[in-house]
Each structure stands twice: as C-alpha cells, then as structure tokens.
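Posted in: Structural Biology > Protein-Ligand Complexes

Title: Requesting predicted complex, NAP in pocket

I'd be grateful if someone could produce the 3D structure tokens for the following input. Sequence and ligand are given below.
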Amino acid sequence: MKTALVTGGSRGIGRAICLKIAAMGYYVLVNYKSNLTEAEITLSQIKNDDGNGELLQYDVADREQVNQQLGGWIKANPDNIIEVLVNNAGVRDDSLMAWMKDEQWDDVLKTSLDGFFSVTRLVLDGMMLNRYGRIINIVSLSGLKGLPGQTNYSAAKGGVIGATKALAQEVGRSGITANAIAPGFIKTDMTEGLDEKELKKMIPINRFGTSEDVAHAVGFLASKEAGYITGQVLSVNGGLYT
Ligand code: NAP
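-- Reply #1 --
Done. Output follows.
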C-alpha cells in the first residue's frame, strides 16, 4: 500500500495537502495535535473523494509521543512504507524579541524544527530500505527573509530550510528527495485577523493564497516525476519579493 504522512492535517494547508495526496492514490496518515473534530472532517473528505487513510494523533513537539504513536504505527505496519512525508505542522506566536517569553520561543521552535527532526528520522529508515521517498517541509517566507515580530518563527523555519538542504545531500543516492515550500500569506486560521485588503497591495498577484495553491505545489514535489528536484525551496507567495 502506498502510504503518505501529513503532519498537522486537521485544518488549513495540511487538510488541502491530505486531499491532494489522497487523490494521487496514497493512503494518508492524517496527523493532528488536539482537534479531533477537524481531523475527522479531513478524513471524511478524503473518503468522499474515493480516497482512504486514518487519523494518527500526536504532538510533533513531544518526541516521546512521536516515537510512541508514529514509531508504533511503523512497527505495526512493516509492509506499508511511508513514501511521502509532508512536515506541515506549525504554529506562530509573535512578539518583538525584547518581550518574547521563553515559552513563545520554545513552542514555536519545538513544533517546526524539533517536529521536523523527530518525525523525519523515524520515517527515513523505511524510505532508505525502499530506495524511494519524497520529503516536503512547509516553511515560510518568514524563514527566508526574516519578519519583525517573528524571530522565533523565522528561526524555526530558517532552521528547517537549512536541514532540508543538508538532508537532500544525505539521502539523494537512496532515491529520496527533500524539498521545502515557502508559502506567503495563505488564508487559514493562522492568518485570521490579518488585514488582507491592506497587505494584498504588496502582493503582485493581488490576493492572499489558498491552501489549495500550496497543496498543488506539494503534489508536484511529491510526484515521481519530480525526482530530479531536491534541496530546493519553492516559494508559493503570489510573487512577494523575498
Ligand atoms: P493552521 O490553520 O493553524 O493549522 C495548523 C495545523 O497544524 C493544525 O492541523 C494543527 O493541529 C497542527 N499542529 C499545530 N501544532 C501541532 C503539533 N505540535 N503537533 C501536531 N500538529 C500540530 O495553520 P496553516 O496556516 O494551515 O499552516 C500550516 C503550515 O504552513 C505551518 O507550518 C505554517 O507555519 C505554514 N505557513 C502558513 C502560512 C499561512 O499564511 N497560513 C504561511 C507560511 C507558512 P490541530 O488542529 O490539532 O490543532
């Protein structure tokens, strides 16, 4: 069974990615942190579109949970190699650095950067044995150019970009690609409250992006045909200059 794992698949960009990857014929493991109701909606949408998958709850920031839940799934399903991994789970908690609390720094770094490490390390073994894999990390414009009020988020996403480039060089010979996608402003819960009317003036395409705009790029990098593209960061930002 061709299997894919999407972290943070219960809402927003992650949900659109789950639907896209399921439409490509993958059995999708939909990870989420706490929002069971939304995760169930993702899974039922997958099934409505004739796809299949299951929910896998764990907090990517908690290495023990990752090892127990994801490690347990991998052990229990030795024939179902995860071929596609999308590290999408992420949070933002903005503050100017002078006022940033320890928890704000730690939560954001642990979710994006530690989460990437804990999840990817577990999945790599199977991909290497299978000599095939597609790893796609959802980063951000903020990780490329840095944004004021987001030293934590810029550091987390910038860290994942560096790790993506290093990992791509480690695993290329095993038929595995590792790439990152850097969205700009995408309409989800994360950007609720931002002034789209004002901010879109900076965006050449003149609108916020949709989750589907990002999922389409994920589908491309997850395809077999994208096997000669690795270590790249693809911006999906409506032309915002980075
Ligand atoms: P969102 O609507 O806030 O959804 C976040 C998703 O991540 C939810 O499914 C949430 O699960 C999950 N999640 C959060 N912390 C988690 C954890 N510790 N363990 C497991 N799952 C966790 O966010 P989004 O806008 O779709 O963002 C998705 C990704 O794109 C993030 O990495 C974000 O940084 C990145 N991004 C977003 C934008 C944008 O404009 N929206 C721009 C650039 C980059 P629950 O539902 O269980 O809480």
